[in-house]
Amino acid sequence: MNLPFDIYILIFSAVVGFYSLYRKRPREIYLKIFPFFLLATVLVELAAFFMIEIAKSHAPTYLLYNPSTTLEFVFYFFSIREIIKKKTAKNILLGLMVAFPLAVAINMTFFQGMHRFNSFTYSIGCLLIVGSCIYYFYELFLMPHSVNLLRQPPFWICTALLFFYAFTYPIYGLSNLMASLPTHLIIIIGRILDSLNVLLYSFFSIAFLCRLRIQK
């Protein structure tokens, strides 16, 4: 099966996550759940690939991506909530975990409808993730002692999320308007998104591996 390269990187990241979980079970619950989240993401991407490339189906992929991206944002809110320290910020992220799915439901019911990609709430989710990651780096800056960031999974995860959602925000936010763009522009945008996916999942892989000490 000739899968896109970014899906191979996603699969690799999921495998590395389970390997890391097997080698050294983390104390942090989000790191325990992360490989299973990536496995679910693999299944979604394979299903979308099958619908588009193999079955040549005209079934809209928003049927997959609307619920999956909603759960994706909730999981990332949860992960960042587990990473940061300040109680007030934790409470805000807990509120976002509840409010965001409700916002998606309201958007799909009253605004964008059930038959298109929920770009409005996706864009809001991008901004919220970027803001949450910036807050993580703010807390990092205020730490009274130094840490080796290269061996800190939260650093790699938040860096990945910050770059990915900062750059995909304008693309996915206007995704419903892109059908009218020339084909060559759509291809270029697709390649940009593939590259951002590769960056995201590569950083996740580093986050899993940096926990393991290589014995000489």
The portion of residues assigned to helices is over 70%
Alpha-carbon distance between the two ends: 38 Å
Query: Which ranges are low-confidence, i.e. pLDDT below 50, for 5 or more consecutive residues?
Result: none
**What is the oligomer described by this structure?**
single chain
The number of helices is: 7
Strand % is: under 5%
Beta strand count = 0
**C-alpha geometry:** globular
Helix and strand element order:
HHHHHHH
Structural class: mainly alpha
Kindly report the average pLDDT value. Answer: 89
Radius of gyration: 18 Å
Biggest sheet character = none
Topology:
Layout: H1 5-23, H2 29-54, H3 62-83, H4 87-111, H5 119-142, H6 153-173, H7 183-209
Helix pairs in contact: 1-2, 1-7, 2-3, 3-4, 3-5, 4-5, 5-6, 6-7
In short:
This protein has 216 residues and is an all-alpha fold. It has helices spanning 5-23, 29-54, 62-83, 87-111, 119-142, 153-173, 183-209.
Describe the protein's architecture and organization.
The protein has helices at 5-23, 29-54, 62-83, 87-111, 119-142, 153-173, 183-209. The protein has a domain at 61-209. With 216 residues, the chain is mainly alpha-helical. α1 runs antiparallel to α2 (29-54), α1 runs parallel beside α7 (183-209) and α2 (29-54) packs antiparallel against α3. 25% of the residues are buried.
